[in-house]
Amino acid sequence: VPPAPTPFDSPGRGADLVIITSDGAILYVVKALLIYASPFFANLLGDSSPDETHDNLPLYRSSEDCRTMCAVVRLCYPVAIEPETMAEVSVLDAVQKYMTEDVQERLKHVVCSSAMMKSEPIRIFAIACRCRWADIARAAAKEILRIPL
């Protein structure tokens, strides 16, 4: 079972929800941040009473692994985001599943403004095409043209 990274590793940070990932990691999160950022979580966690609890907190079982779910939840939190993690296919798919357009725009900004645009333009181009980010795909294509043959 992978350990949950900070700030999701302890209920002491105002957590009022537990997410257990597909690989068994336990994430302690603030429900209000998820509800605000995601209609999926708003519908899931709105007014319903939980079927399960963990540490006396409502429990949600995720089909995503720890790395993917942590990346998704980080987009809801006012914390730093690692572009390399956000540029993984599993994370991109989960963001499209769980998040609003505003959060997707934040992800888009993180990915395109990172050093990866210069160091890995082919990867950014592929990501942009997968996510239908035409403007980012164009910018990455221009960077690809700068790669010496």
Offer a concise description of the structure.
With 149 residues, this protein is an alpha+beta fold. The chain has 9 helices and 4 strands. Strands 2-1-4-3 form a 4-stranded mixed β-sheet.
Q: Which whole number gives the mean pLDDT? A: 87
Measured by DSSP, the beta-strand proportion falls in: 5-15%
Structural class: alpha+beta
What Rg do the Cα atoms give?
17 Å
N-to-C series of helices and strands: EEHHEEHHHHHHH
Between the first and last Cα atoms, what is the distance in angstroms? 44 Å
In one word, what is the shape? Answer: elongated
Word description of this protein:
- 52% of the residues lie in helices and 10% in strands.
- The chain has nine helices and four strands.
- Strands 2-1-4-3 form a four-stranded mixed beta sheet.
- A hairpin with a 2-residue loop joins strand 3 and strand 4.
- Helix 1 packs across helix 2 and helix 8 runs antiparallel to helix 9.
- The longest helix has 12 residues.
- The protein is elongated.
